[in-house]
Amino acid sequence: MFVRGVFLASCLSLLGAVASAEEAYPPDMADRVQACTPCHGEQGKGTNDPYFPRLAGKPAGYLYNQLEAFKSGRRKYPPMNYLLAFLTDDYLRQFAAYFADQRPALPEKPPTDASAAVLDHGHTLVTQGDLDRSIPACVSCHGGSLTGQEPGIPGLLGLRASYISAQLGGWRYGTRTATAPDCMQLVAGRLTEDDVRAVAAYLANQAQPADPAPSAAGSYSLPFACGSQPEKGRTP
User: Fold this and answer.
1) 181: preceding bond cis by omega (within 30 degrees)
2) Tell me: the pLDDT tens digits for 33-71?
3) The whole model's pTM is what?
4) Exposed, middle or buried by CB within 10 Å (0-12, 13-18, 19+), for 202?
């Protein structure tokens, strides 16, 4: 507990959250976000740890929504909840903007033990969905290159299969939620365990596209209303 407390205090100091008027902390965001590096990698590119996601290049609106969710406790992971509880919303927006601007290469793909049949099933769900079960294709929201859309839909590349599976499970069972209407909870609730395994394996096996940037807002219409991707004139 002592070691964890020292680590968290060090992170807060780097983040600038505990700096008083007399204390100096790094003025450059690249230096401040070093507190995020042990879990999320340099520039937010990800690490070999499957349960800490890549942040780089995701839309700033999406990243801010997640930071706010951890700050409010809607998403629960004690280290993140504690670290973000002391930061202002404006500061969270600065963090989101920093990581959204980063474009490091995707990490090397880990080997997969998924069979060809599993990967084929994942490919079908990601690119076509399953109309008989009212499951839209992942690309219909996350884009044909799976790089997301501004301001609130994330890219799905550079994530480990176990992380994707865990997040889909969180939506399926209600432990992860988003602004209503919570479209991901709706979609994930229609997936079976085999579906989740296949989608996660397929997405984790994809290469970086020529243009890794998310699509501009309004580049394509979503198949249904989604609270995290507001219509024009609304805020998330």
Assistant:
1) yes
2) 998 999 999 999 999 898 999 999 999 999 999 999 999
3) 0.87
4) buried
